[in-house]
């Protein structure tokens, strides 16, 4: 599915997979040749300490680089080519190398808008200089919401992403710096440079949607009164590795955040998923981390994906009537394969709509999978797919990684719809503190504006170069359905 995901939105960077490009330093043991420096997740049995596992790691020539006792997981680096075999034994439930298990951040190109205009500082989001281009905020009734509640500083939202520009004029005042970190390699680094963007401004855009200041400059965020924390999980090659995601969930849980936004995928389900001995431990580690964060009061929000894929029917490839999948492969693609974190239990899964409120051409869907929808942009519907209309994307804060300059620009994707749901959830918690993650998730659904299925086969972009049926999708369900879940999130309904 990786290819399908990448084709929808432009410009996932072409890079080589894998960790461990560094040459191992020091002297290798004379008896055995050193392999590449690889990262492993070592899991102690559920509920057990990691002490025994750590001893086995040392004996197997591994180095523990991060210890997550809360969930019984060690992040280990080792150049021992036989490490996985050597570490097995009492105190170790499972072990897996994460090499090759990073998934690419689904980047959409940023189109920057030139602006240096500043306006008077008001408490009114509609008075921000670029508000006229924020159709998404009108759709979720943001002006009405902020007249009631613009967010509480007690609410901190973890943005698990590619970092947040701490010099951005719309974000500098919005970041909880003491709660920000890098989690690259599964290891925290709280220096400011470590959690600022390097090769991607995806996280800066996401953060602006959630909490850009209403300060007379640029855009308005949904909940400017709350704080965002940068939790950098995307490496400089544009990949999210499981150890970084595990680190991010635990960091957010242990640093008093009530919400995380996850506009990325830990994406193993195109492979062999839980039936695969090497992926199973990775799965378990991520799921333990998500469960732990729930137990600490964190609600996690995740993007559904940009593949126009029916997540409820993974075995059915409607686009390929002549597909030659073997039955074994289909079996592996069923319930053993969940899209993480979007399909993990307790995670709010968010689809995308464009300016008309209809499903975006790229948005993945699925009855029982999509919980809510939100504006993510649809730059193709207006021309039925012939060309792009960028102003139908989502305008937010940007950081040009080439020139190292802050700005504002458009992106589209469920990466953009997710933070709208997160921002609305942050307003909900500001107005109604004390809700548990489960209560908040149901409140978010209950206050969303229901939207029914379109009739028949839906395709807003039949003139797409990809073909007349490339973006066909069929919606099923009633008031709660596969395209829109419980409906489009509404900022006013959660605070009124
Ligand atoms: Ca602003
Ligand atoms: Ca869900």
Automatic annotation (TrEMBL):
Residues 154-450 form the Peptidase S8/S53 domain. One of its GO terms (biological process) is proteolysis. InterPro entries: Peptidase_S8/S53_dom, Peptidase_S8/S53_dom_sf, Peptidase_S8_Asp-AS, Peptidase_S8_His-AS, Peptidase_S8_Ser-AS, Peptidase_S8_subtilisin-like, Peptidase_S8_subtilisin-rel, TAT_signal. The active site is at residues 161, 202, 415. Residues 1-24 form the signal peptide. SUPFAM superfamilies: Subtilisin-like. It holds the Pfam family Peptidase_S8. It comes from the Bacteria. Coiled coil: none annotated. GO terms for molecular function: serine-type endopeptidase activity. Keywords: Hydrolase, Protease, Serine protease, Signal. Belongs to the peptidase S8 family. This is Serine protease, subtilisin family. It comes from Micromonospora mirobrigensis. The lineage of its organism: Bacteria, Bacillati, Actinomycetota, Actinomycetes, Micromonosporales.
């Amino acid at each position: 599915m990786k290819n399908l995901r990448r084709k929808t939105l432009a410009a996932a960077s072409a890079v080589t997979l894998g960790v461990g490009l560094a040459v191992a330093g020091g002297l290798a043991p004379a008896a055995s040749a050193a392999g590449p420096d690889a990262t492993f997740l070592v899991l102690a049995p559920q509920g057990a300490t990691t002490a025994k596992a750590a001893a086995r790691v040392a004996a197997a020539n591994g180095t523990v680089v991060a210890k997550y006792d809360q969930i019984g997981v060690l992040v280990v680096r080792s150049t021992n080519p036989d490490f996985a075999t050597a570490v097995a034994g009492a105190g170790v439930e499972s072990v897996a190398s994460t090499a090759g298990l990073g998934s690419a951040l689904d980047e959409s190109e940023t189109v920057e808008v030139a602006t240096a205009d500043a306006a008077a500082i008001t408490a009114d989001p509609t008075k921000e200089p670029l508000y006229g281009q924020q159709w998404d905020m009108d759709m979720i009734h943001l002006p009405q919401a902020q007249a009631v509640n613009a967010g509480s500083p007690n609410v901190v939202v973890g943005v698990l992403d590619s970092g947040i520009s701490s010099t951005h004029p719309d974000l500098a005042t919005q970041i909880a710096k003491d709660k920000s970190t890098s989690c690259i390699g599964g290891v925290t680094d709280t220096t400011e440079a470590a959690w600022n963007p390097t090769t991607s401004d995806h996280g800066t855009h996401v953060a602006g949607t959630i909490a850009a200041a209403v300060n007379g400059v640029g855009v308005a965020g949904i909940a400017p009164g709350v704080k965002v924390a940068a939790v950098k999980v995307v490496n400089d090659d544009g990949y999210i590795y499981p150890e970084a995601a595990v680190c991010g969930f635990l960091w957010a849980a242990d640093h008093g955040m009530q919400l995380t936004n996850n506009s990325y995928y830990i994406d193993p389900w195109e492979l062999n998923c839980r039936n695969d001995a090497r992926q199973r431990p990775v799965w378990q580690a991520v799921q333990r981390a998500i469960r732990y964060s729930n137990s600490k009061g964190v609600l996690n929000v995740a993007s559904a994906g940009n593949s126009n894929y029916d997540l409820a029917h993974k075995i059915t490839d409607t686009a390929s009537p002549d597909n030659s999948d073997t039955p074994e492969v289909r079996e592996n693609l069923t319930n053993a394969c969940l899209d993480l974190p979007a399909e993990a239990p307790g995670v709010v899964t968010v689809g995308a709509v464009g300016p008309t409120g209809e499903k975006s051409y790229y948005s993945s869907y699925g009855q029982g999978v999509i919980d809510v929808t939100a504006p993510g942009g649809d730059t193709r519907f207006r021309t039925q797919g012939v060309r792009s209309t960028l102003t139908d994307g989502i305008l937010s804060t940007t950081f040009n990684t080439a020139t190292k300059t802050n700005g504002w620009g458009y992106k589209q994707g469920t990466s953009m719809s997710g933070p709208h749901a997160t921002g609305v959830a942050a307003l909900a918690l500001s107005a109604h503190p004390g809700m548990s993650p489960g209560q908040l998730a149901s409140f978010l659904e209950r206050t969303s504006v229901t939207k029914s299925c379109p009739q028949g086969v839906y395709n807003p972009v039949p003139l797409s170069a990809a073909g007349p049926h490339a973006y066909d999708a069929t919606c099923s369900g009633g008031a709660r359905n596969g395209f829109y879940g419980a409906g489009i999130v509404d900022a006013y309904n959660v605070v009124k």
